[in-house]
Every structure is written in C-alpha cells, then in structure tokens.
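Consider the tokenized backbone below.
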C-alpha cells in the first residue's frame, strides 16, 4: 500500500587448518537455508516464530534454487559500495521511534575498562550496534550506516578492542521477509579501531563467515574465539590470522575465568577446550541432540550447566560439578518446566549462572525460570505486558548476563523486545530508551502525524506524541494497540482515531479511539475462524467518511468488508476473488476510484475489476462464497517476470493506469517493473531496474506530482529514481542500510507535496518531508483556511474557500486524534466563515478540518481557558 491522497482525500586473511576438524561440520558453504524447516513442517505451524519462519521464504530466496547464495549477497553489497557517487542526499529521514520498544537482541557487552564509567553496548540483529554511556538508561547508534547491521555476538579483549559478528542464520533462517522474522545475511567480523568502541572495520568476510554464531574473549590474553557454521576459529593477533580449532556447526560458546572455552554444536555435542583453546575434547555423559546453551559459574569453573532442547522442546537441564567428568540431570521436561512454548528451543535458548551462587542458574526460552538447590525449578518472570505488571520480561530470551559492578549484581536479559534488567530477580525494568531497533513490517500515518505499524513479536504500536518528551523532542513513546506479530495497519483518512490492525493468520480488528479498545468485525460469511498465511495483508479504500471497503487476503481468496469505517452499522463481507493459485497473497493496492484492486503473489499479479459496479447484498448473494455479479479477475503478470515473486504492487494515485511492481529473490537482475496501461486487457510492462544493485525490493511509492520519481524499499534501505528507473540513488541520509518492507506516501493537503513514512525492520519508523517543501501542487484545486483569533477562548472563526456551493463537514480533533465535534454546514462558492464554539474544550492544541467532496483543508489552533 502506497500513496494515500488525502484530498479528502577485506583485507587479506590467512586461514590455517587447525586440529580436531571433524566430519560433523554441517555448514552448507555455498547456500543458506533453514536447518529446522523439516522439523517445523512435521510439527505444524504455531502462533510464534515458527509460523513466521514458514511464511517468509519466497520474498528473499531465489525462485529457482530455493537458496540465497552468499556470492549473490556479496555481489549486491559490492555494487552498492562501489557506487559511492550515487548515494543521494535528496531524502532526509527523521526517526519517529518507538524509543521505548526494542527489537530482537542477541549481543550485549559491558565495557571491561574500569575507567569506562557506565559504558555498555548492545547489538540488534537487524538494527546495528548501539552504545550507552549512562548504564543503559539511554542509547545511541554507533555503527557506520553502511556497515552490516545484523549483529549476533560481541566480545572485548583485555586491551579494550571490541569485536562483533554478523549474520543470524544459525538461529533462525536467511529467508526472512516482511512475512516473518528474518535473519539477514552477515558479512563476517568487525573490529573497533579505538577502545571507545565508536568506529569499526570489517576484518573477515568470506562466504564461510556469512553466519557468525557466537564469540568469546580470553580474560587475560588478547585472544578471541569466533564460531560459525564450519567451526570455532581462534585469532591471537587481532584478526590478522585465524586458525580453525574445532569443526562443526558451533552455536553456543562460553569461557570461564581461567580461559577454558566450552562450546556446543547444532547436534547438541559438548566440547571443552584446553588451556590455550587449540584442542577440544568431546565431553561424555550427556546424550547429544538439539540446540544446547551452556554456562560456567564465575565462582567455580568446575560448575558447568547445560540447557538443552531437542530443537523444539525442553530435554532438560544438566550440571557438572567436576569440570565435565560427570553430569547430573537437574530439571526434566514436564508441563511445568517447558519454557520453550510451542517449540522454540532452536530459536530462544539461553542460560546463565548466578555470579554469587554457583548452585543457582537462570534459564531463558519463551519464558524465564531459575533453579537452585534450595527450591528447585520455578518461573521468575511474566510475559504479560501491562503497565502494572512489574514482573514483565518480553518473551523469547536470547541472552542473560550480569553487571557485577552493582551490588547486588544487576541481571540483564536480551529478548525479542530488547533489554530488561532487575536487581532482585522479581521486579523488572525495560532499558530500551532510544534503542531504535523496532522490527517493523508495516507503517501507516494520519494527517495529525501519528504513526503506527506492525512488528515482529511486538504487536502493533502507535506513536501519537503522548507521554514524556525526551531531549526536548516530542514523545516517541509507543502504545501497543494490538498484540502478537503485527502486520498490516491502516488509519482512516477521514477519522484519524480509527485504525485497522492485524496479527498473524488473518486476524484483524478495528478501533475508533486510537486503540483504547478494539473489536473484530466479522459476519457469518467470514467469521474469522478460517486461518490464512502467517502474514496478514489488507487494503483500505475510502470514498468519504461513511463509504469504504477493506480488502482482506485469506490464502488465495480476497474478501471485501463493506463500509467498515462506519461503526454505527454492521459490516458485511463478500468474496470478490477466488482461485488465484495456491501461493499466498503478499500485498494488494487499489486504484483511486476503488474500481480495481491489484493482488501481488509469488508468480502472479492479479487485477480484480468492476468493484464499483457490483451490488453487495446478502439477500442477492446468500452463499458464503458467492461473488457478486460483474466482478472479474485477470492475471496481468509481466511475461519477463514469470515465476518470480511479486513483493508489492503500487498504484500511482494521480493515474490509476500507472502501476509499479517490485520483485524479490537474490540471484536475479531485474527487480522493478512499470506499466502505463495497467487497466488494459494486456498491459505493456517495462523493466526499470536500471543500475539498481541486485537486491530484493519490497515496496515502492510513485510521486503523484512526478511519475518519473519512484522510491523503493530494499534490503539495503531506500533507493530513488528521478528518471523513470534509468538511474537509482541510495537515499539513506539520517537512517542506515536497514531493510525497509513498507513505504507510505500521503498528501495531507491538496496544495502540498507528498510526505513519506517507512517501516524499517531494525530501526523503527522514519518520516521524510522533502517533497512537502519541494513540490507545490498548484494545478490542483486548493482550499485555503484560516482560524482567528488564535489562540481562542470561547469561540473562533474558521475562514475557508470553497470551490463550489454545497454541503461541507467541519471536524475538530485533539492531538490524540479524538474527534471532539462535527459541524455540518452549507457553503457558498468562494469565501466562507463559520463560528466555532470552544467554550467546552480544555486548554490545549486542536485541529479543525473542513471536508467538502474530495477537497479538504485543516488548521491547527489553540484554546486557552
């Protein structure tokens, strides 16, 4: 969904073959895929990360090979890097937040120098590295915006050098898209160029290092161990040389206070290193199997704990008290002890030993628990997010550590929701201020500037400027208005407090009060019980304040809700398209008049026609799958893009026949197509990929004032063309090379240009106002407006121009988008003045909006009582 017209509208390295290289290595080398896919298919989908993983492949994987070859990603990255001169400065992006909700975290570090104060680092899996100088009270991004932002692990050697690894594929998959939770390709290991940790350089980035699982540093020597799918590598000279010291797909690793490295493989085998970490011994006593996390007691290195899953569910917790000679089972799998929910033991699995008690261990999965010799097993946190719930820690824990500089040590937990800390293990506080790592799938905005979007495991969040400001800026605090994994979201353009929201498997709801309450709006035709793909996509078309349609994709069907923006009447649903193929629908967009709907899918692009001519009557069409007469569909997929996944379809709101589609899949040469006759029986398509790097493109918006200007979202952020696709410039100023799954363009006033919002998967929401100031829409009908006196006390005059005589609606909203009053008036052509009573309004700022036909105008005014 695109534009809404509110006209209301390497340096070289030496790899030395090391010892103990075993045949267990399961790194595929030349391709990336999901090692847990088979187990997930056998177990079925659940409403968690597994559903997301099952849903995401076609957007990024090559349609022929079903893989992402590392050389494809590296080639695309090289293309982007080699075109430094093409990096544009036209678009300036401003971060909109949220600054109180974090994204997925697997890497955390407390600076090891005593004179570093309260310096901490946190790595987001798709948003990059952030630094805090305030003990985690606030954060700032520190990584070069062109660096790889998929951080999975971090470590610091005694000399103060910080290293981090990239590429999360060892714990989820590399086919991630807006339809699920992705693991973006990494490009090896980065090293700080100063002990402050403010600048980094890439020190190894060969194909084997596209997925980096974990790393540890020696406590007294400047040695570093890093693991990937091929094994554990050791460097003793800052990354100039690397030695493979343990083969196998090593997923978890830790080091004790004496420098002994412990690690576990994807097959669940346990290995213990020698004193210099050059030889590893297979530890007997625990049957191998599944992902296993490992932790060593800081007090006593003889105490080592294992948290093991079978790849999905809990197998148990084991402990050795004699350095691995013997192992004891401490916690067995029961309904009470199952901390991996519906089977996520491969995805969220972490363990840590209390630094002051070697007989107490903390366990993280979907839930969080502890075990000690006094009371055994019990859960210690809740996953229920409510303001009054002091025990809340976000689901899906990935890392547990301790700040031992506090007394008692502060426990810090990294999860899909960012960071949380506790000093007593019962009361928890979020530490996400300015940790802009929110993983958005979608974005929408209203003319008040409020922004909302769905996200990976953080629901649908609304930013409407309520809450405390920070650093003198308007509040970027977000309010969760719908839970689960959030997908498509829409504001009504006539009623800014009306929002449509969704979560997984086709579940949608609406709210008329900015999410203070919400409800579903099914009928007997579509009662909400039938599920669809994990991704939920819909498109909202509005003619006026009461006439609207919401098109919802359910597997291969498209359903239409009639007038869902009208809360005073019941909503009826009608099937408008069926038989579009077995693959899921990825995105839809409509023409400005609502008569045509375009449907994007893997291998197909459908156009549904004559929607305005149909009669939507339950008496005429009583059957649940009756399609109203007159509605037809046609596959208009470009022949040259046959077999490719259409990731988005985008209608030019100034010209319904002008349509741009985007394509996914690494390993291709074409990613953007355009047609000027999209409403013909056989549209003529043109490849406008031009000199764009060979990366999947996820969304686009066409500037209605300049059809040659097209803005797209990619794996590497935003690109733009101003000459119809011949040349593309990278437009990430103020942002970073973060994946962008959706772009929205709005015209909030008919005489202004477009304002854009993007939902990034790793840095939250951004806004761009460049076209507001650069584009004047003088050719279109204008409605001037003025409020006086301003500020007002008991009343003010609203003066506006009308193009013609007729009825008009005047609406007054507060800054939260709540409708305070509506006044219907009769206008004359030309100047009009209406007196508005404000005696019952509290002091504060408001918006007055005039709506006449398709023309609108709004003005901000203040009330002082």
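A designed sequence for it:
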């Amino acid at each position: 969904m695109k534009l809404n017209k509110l006209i209301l509208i390497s340096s070289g390295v030496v790899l030395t073959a090391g010892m103990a290289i075993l045949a267990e290595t399961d790194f595929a080398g030349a391709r990336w895929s999901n090692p847990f896919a088979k187990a997930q298919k056998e177990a079925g989908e659940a409403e968690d990360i597994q559903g997301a993983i099952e849903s995401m492949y076609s957007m990024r994987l090559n349609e022929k090979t079903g893989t992402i070859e590392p050389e494809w990603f590296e080639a695309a990255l090289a293309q982007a890097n080699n075109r430094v001169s093409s990096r544009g400065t036209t678009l300036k992006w401003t971060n909109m937040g949220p600054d109180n909700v974090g994204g997925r975290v697997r890497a955390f570090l407390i600076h090891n120098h005593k004179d570093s104060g309260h310096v901490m680092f946190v790595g987001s899996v798709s948003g990059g590295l952030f630094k805090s100088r305030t003990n985690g009270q606030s954060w700032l991004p520190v990584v070069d915006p062109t660096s790889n932002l998929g951080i999975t692990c971090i470590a610091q050697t005694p000399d103060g050098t910080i290293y981090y690894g990239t590429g999360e594929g060892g714990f989820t998959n590399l086919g991630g898209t807006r339809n699920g939770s992705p693991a973006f390709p990494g490009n090896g290991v980065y090293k700080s160029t100063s002990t402050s940790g403010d600048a980094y350089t890439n020190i190894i980035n060969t194909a084997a290092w596209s997925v980096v699982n974990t790393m540890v540093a020696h406590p007294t020597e400047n040695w570093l161990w890093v693991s990937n799918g091929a094994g554990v590598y050791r460097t003793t000279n800052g990354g100039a040389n690397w030695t493979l010291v343990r083969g196998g797909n090593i997923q978890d690793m830790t080091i004790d206070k004496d420098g002994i490295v412990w690690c576990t493989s994807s097959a669940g085998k346990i290995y213990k290193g020698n004193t210099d970490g050059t030889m590893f011994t297979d530890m007997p006593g625990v049957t191998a199997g599944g992902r296993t996390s490992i932790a060593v007691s800081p007090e006593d290195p003889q105490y080592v704990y294992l948290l093991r899953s079978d790849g999905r569910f809990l197998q148990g917790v084991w402990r050795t008290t004699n350095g691995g000679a013997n192992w004891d089972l401490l916690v067995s799998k029961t309904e009470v002890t199952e901390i991996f929910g519906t089977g996520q033991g491969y995805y969220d699995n972490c363990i840590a030993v209390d630094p002051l008690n070697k007989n107490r261990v903390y366990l993280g999965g979907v839930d969080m628990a502890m075990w000690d010799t006094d009371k055994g097993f019990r859960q210690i946190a809740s996953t229920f997010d409510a303001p009054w719930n002091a025990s809340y820690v976000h689901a899906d824990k990935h890392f547990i550590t301790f700040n031992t500089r506090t007394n008692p040590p502060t426990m810090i937990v990294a999860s899909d929701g960012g960071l949380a800390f506790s000093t007593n293990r019962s009361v928890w506080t979020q530490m996400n201020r300015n940790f802009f790592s929110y993983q958005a799938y979608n974005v929408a905005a209203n003319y008040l500037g409020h922004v909302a979007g769905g996200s990976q495991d953080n629901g649908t969040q609304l930013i409407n400027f309520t809450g405390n400001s920070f650093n003198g800026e308007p509040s970027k605090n977000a309010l969760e208005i719908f839970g689960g994994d959030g997908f498509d979201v829409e504001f009504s353009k006539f009623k800014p407090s009306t929002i449509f929201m969704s979560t997984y498997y086709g579940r949608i709801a609406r709210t008329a009060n900015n999410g203070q309450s919400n409800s579903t709006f099914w009928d007997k035709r579509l009662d909400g019980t039938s599920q669809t793909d994990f991704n939920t996509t819909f498109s909202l078309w509005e003619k006026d304040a009461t006439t609207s349609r919401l098109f919802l994709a359910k597997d291969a069907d498209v359903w239409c809700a009639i007038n869902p923006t009208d809360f005073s009447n019941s909503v009826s649903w009608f099937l408008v398209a069926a038989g579009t193929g077995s693959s899921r629908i990825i995105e839809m967009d409509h023409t400005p008049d609502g008569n045509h709907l375009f449907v994007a899918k893997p291998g197909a692009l459908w156009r549904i026609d004559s929607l305005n001519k149909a009669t939507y009557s339950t008496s005429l069409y009583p059957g649940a799958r009756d399609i109203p007469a007159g509605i037809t569909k046609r596959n208009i997929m470009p022949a040259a893009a046959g077999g490719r996944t259409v990731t988005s379809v985008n209608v030019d709101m100034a010209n319904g026949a002008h349509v741009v589609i985007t394509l996914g899949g690494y390993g291709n040469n074409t990613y953007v197509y355009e047609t000027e006759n999209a409403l013909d029986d056989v549209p003529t398509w043109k490849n406008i990929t031009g000199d764009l790097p060979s990366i999947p493109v996820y969304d686009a918006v066409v500037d209605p004032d300049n059809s040659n200007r097209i803005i797209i979202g990619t794996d590497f952020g935003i690109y733009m063309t101003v000459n119809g696709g011949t040349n593309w410039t990278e437009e990430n100023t103020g942002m970073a090379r973060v994946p962008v799954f959706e772009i929205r363009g709005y015209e909030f006033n008919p005489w202004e240009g477009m304002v854009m919002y993007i939902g990034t998967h790793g840095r939250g929401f951004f806004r761009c106002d460049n076209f507001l100031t650069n584009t004047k829409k003088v050719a279109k009908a204008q409605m001037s407006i003025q409020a006086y006196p301003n500020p007002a006390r008991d009343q003010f005059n609203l003066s506006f121009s009308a193009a013609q005589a007729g009825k008009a609606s005047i609406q007054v909203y507060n800054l939260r988008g709540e409708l305070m009053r509506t006044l219907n008036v009769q206008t004359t052509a030309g100047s009009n003045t209406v007196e508005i009573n404000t005696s019952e309004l509290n002091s504060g700022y408001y918006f007055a909006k005039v709506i006449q036909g398709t023309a609108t105008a709004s003005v901000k005014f203040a009330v002082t009582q």
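Residues 5-48, 50-55, 775-781 have pLDDT under 50 and may be disordered.
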